[in-house]
Each structure stands twice: as C-alpha cells, then as structure tokens.
C-alpha cells in the first residue's frame, strides 16, 4: 500500500543530514526534472522581488526566499519530518515506535511541487514552492510533472491511497487510486464537507494506514480495515471512500 500525502507550505527548519543529493532520492527517473526545478528555484531567489511575485510571498516572508537560495547547501531531514501543519501534526511520525516507523517508511510518500514524489525517508532541505507557483521561463508545474510523474505513479503495483489536495493531485493523477472525502454529520443527520480540519482527519487516517500490520489490496478491503478501526466509512462503489465524522469532532 502506498499512501500519498500533500506537502505543506511551511517546513521545519534545519536538519542534521548532509546537503541535498538528488541521486540519493527515490524514483531517480524524476531527477532530470528535479534538477531543472532546483536550478530554477535557486536562480529565482537571486531576485527577491521576482521571487515574491512567483511564489506569492510578502516581504515578511523573505526568509523563505533565503531558504531557496541555500537549497543546495542547507542541511536535510527525512521528508516525512520536514513538513508541518495540521495533517502532519495529526500524523505525528516522531511518536511512532521503531517498528511503526519502518512500516511507515515503506508506505508513506509526499507529492511535491519541487521533487515530484518523495518517499518518507528521502532527505530534503527546507524550501518554498507550491503546486500553483509559476517559475519564470518555465511552463506550469502541472505541465512539467504530469508526463513524467504519471508514469511513475501508474507503475506502482500496490494499492494507492491518494490523500493529496486538489492542486497536487492534478500534478499527476493516479488512475484507480483510492481517494477519501471527509464529511461532518450533525445530530439531525445533515452533512457538510469538512474543509480546514479535513487535514487533521486525513492525518489520523494516514497514521492508521502507515502503522497497521494489515495489507489491504483493494478499496473493499481498505474499507473493512477502517471500519474495524472504528471509523464510519461509506463506499458507494468506485474508488472513493467517504469518512463521516460527528460534527463535534470536526475541530479535534
């Protein structure tokens, strides 16, 4: 099973690993495009005003541009520890046992605008580039990534659970992947799509899938696994699951 996570705009700073080495990352067939994008991001950082415009940053965020300027020489840390935010707080990989962490390393991956696909333990520096960013002189990131990344993801033999947000899923859709919609249910039975706290519920779901000893190989078996874990999951056919949470649990 491969669980695809969205990245986050914010990153943990620092790290104890050696500087970025693209040859050490998984899926080496992505390296030519990775190198092109790294060069573009580093070069863009030399023009602070242009970088602000391209990356959608304010002057108060110039530190993000400085990170990009140092992208090739900054310390690294495992990708799954680099990203921050609601989803990653709920995933909480640093609290996993050694056995759980080994299992998670084999199952979790992050969709990245800069690196395309990162396995959990791929060592990366802090950087700033979003799926919607426009790098001067280059086509849209979706146009760049889709031809190469789609083939990589299509070649995954395991069940793919795609928890990426819309913009990152569009970089390279995965035919046949299981997707998850999160709905809140009020006491009167009415339902609504969960927006912000959708990330927290998907983070908890990712933690469960990363650490379970089960190996679901279909959407039906995945649904059964989640139901055994006490989750209210509905499946109306196809490859989408609906996770229904009480409205009172939406903010937790």
From TrEMBL:
One of its GO terms (biological process) is response to hydroperoxide. InterPro entries: YaaA. GO terms for cellular component: cytosol. Residues 1-22 are annotated as: Disordered. This is Peroxide stress protein YaaA. It comes from Modestobacter caceresii.
């Amino acid at each position: 099973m491969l669980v695809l996570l969205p990245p986050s705009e914010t990153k943990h700073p620092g790290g104890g690993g050696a500087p970025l080495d693209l040859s050490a990352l998984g899926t080496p067939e992505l390296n030519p495009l990775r190198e092109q994008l790294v060069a573009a991001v580093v070069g863009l950082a030399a023009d602070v005003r242009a970088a602000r415009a391209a990356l959608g940053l304010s002057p108060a965020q110039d530190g993000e541009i400085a990170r990009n300027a140092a992208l090739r020489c900054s310390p690294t840390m495992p990708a799954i520890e680099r990203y921050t935010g609601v989803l990653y707080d709920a995933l909480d990989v640093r609290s996993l046992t050694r056995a759980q962490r080994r299992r998670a390393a084999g199952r979790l991956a992050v969709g990245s605008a800069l690196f395309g696909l990162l396995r959990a333990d791929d060592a990366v520096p802090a950087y700033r580039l979003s799926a919607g960013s426009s790098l001067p002189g280059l086509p849209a990131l979706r146009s760049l990534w889709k031809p190469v990344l789609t083939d990589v993801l299509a070649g995954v033999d395991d069940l793919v659970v795609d928890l990426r947000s819309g913009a990152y899923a569009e970089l390279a859709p995965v035919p046949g992947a299981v997707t998850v919609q999160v709905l809140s249910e009020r006491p009167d039975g009415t339902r609504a799509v969960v927006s912000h706290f959708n990330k927290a519920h998907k983070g908890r779901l990712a933690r469960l899938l990363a650490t379970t000893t089960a190996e679901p190989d279909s959407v039906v078996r995945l649904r059964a696994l989640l139901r055994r874990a006490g989750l209210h999951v509905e499946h109306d056919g196809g490859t989408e699951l609906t996770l229904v949470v009480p409205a009172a649990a939406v903010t937790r």
